[in-house]
Amino acid sequence: MDDLEPIAPDEALELYIDHRRREVAKSTLRSHKSRLGHFIRWCEDEKELTNLNELTGRLLHEFRLWRRNYDTEIKPVTEKTQMDTLRVFIRFLETVDAVKPDLSEKVLSPDLDANENVRDERLTAEQAEAVLTYLGRYKYASRAHIVLTLQWHTMLRRGAVRTLDLSDYHAEEQSLEVRHRPESGTPIKNKEEGERFVALSTEVCGLLDDWIDTRRPDVVDEYGREPLIATSSGRMHATTPTSIVYNWSRPCKIGISCPLNRDPDDCEAADYTHASKCPESVSSHAVRRGAITNHLASDVPVEVVSARANVAPATLDKHYDRRDERTKMEQRRKYLDNL
User: Fold this and answer.
1) What is the CATH number of the domain that holds 98?
2) Strand (E) or helix (H) holding 296
C-alpha cells in the first residue's frame, strides 16, 4: 500500500480512457466506458470506495456477484465481456501504481461453452423482405430505405454506411468505395484493412440514383465533405442507423399484427424513441448477421462473403453464420453430386 498512489474510481476511469484513446476505435472506447461504468457506480454507491488502492480480490468477486444480479440477471456472455474488460482495466491500473500488483489475476470471468459465446439475434430473409417491400411501397428512396437496403444487400457495418460520401458511389461501375478517413470523422472498424470496393446490383443503384436526385439534402458535413446519406444538418449521427433498424424492424411499423398481441396505442415500444424496447425489434448488427447468413444460404462462397463483408472466415463461421448443419450439408451436396 505504501508504494501505491491514491486514486478515485472516476479519476481512474478517465485515466484509462485517455490511455486507450489512440489504440482503439471510438465505438470500442464507448463500450469500455459503458461496461466499466457499472464498476465505478458500484465502487461509489455500493461500497463508498473512494480510493482504488483498497481494492482486493474479495471486493472484485463481490462486484461480480452484484453485477450478475443487478436489476435483471445478465447473460453469461455479457458477464464474461464485462469481467474481461474489468481485468484489462485493473491490469492498466497496476502499471500506474493505482492498485496492488497482480490484482488483475483475481478478476474472475465465467468459462463459456462454444455456443454460449455466440449471439443468435438476426434479421431473417423473410423479415428483411417484408421491411424493404414496405419501405419501397410507402417510403421509397427515404433515408431509412437507403440505410436498410445498403446494410442488407452489401452487409456493410453501420459505421461504414455512415462514412460514405457522394464521391464514393460510382454509378457507372455500380459500386461503392469504402474508405477509412479518421482525420475527418469517419473511421471504419478495420481501418485501412477494411477499405474495399463493394459491387451493387442494378436495382440498388437505381434506388441510390433516385435518393440522390430527389430526396438527398444538398449539404456538406463539418469537414466540407458531401455525405451520401445526408440529413438536413450534414452527416447522420453514428447512432442513426441503429435507430432506423430498431424502428423499422418492429412488426407493427410495417402493418403486421403484433405477435405479442399488444395494442400499439398502449405499447411503450410503439413510440420511436423506445423502439429498442420492442421484443420483436432487432439491432443494426442483427441486420448484418442476417444478411451474411442469407448470402451463405444462397450459395455465395465463403471467400466472397468474407471479402465483401470484411470479416475473417473463422470469425464469420463462429459469429455470423446461422445456417444449421443440415442446410450446410445439402449445400455441399450440390457440389459433390457433380464429382
Assistant:
1) 1.10.150.130
2) helix 284-297
The answer to whether 103 and 57 have CB atoms below 8 angstroms apart is: yes
User: What are the grid coordinates assigned to 28, written together?
Assistant: 470500442
Contact between residue 210 and residue 141 where contact means Cβ atoms under 8 Å apart: yes
Read off the C-alpha cell for 216. 438527398
Its pTM stands at 0.66
How confident is the chain (339 residues) per 10-residue block, as mean pLDDT? 86 94 79 92 92 94 87 74 92 94 88 52 88 96 97 94 96 95 91 94 97 96 96 93 93 88 86 86 88 87 90 80 75 67
Closest Cα to residue 146, out of 216, 201, 247?
216
For 71, the domain range is: 9-117
Residue 135 lies in a domain: yes
Distance CA 309, CA 289 (A): 10
On whether both 177 and 282 belong to a single domain, the answer is yes
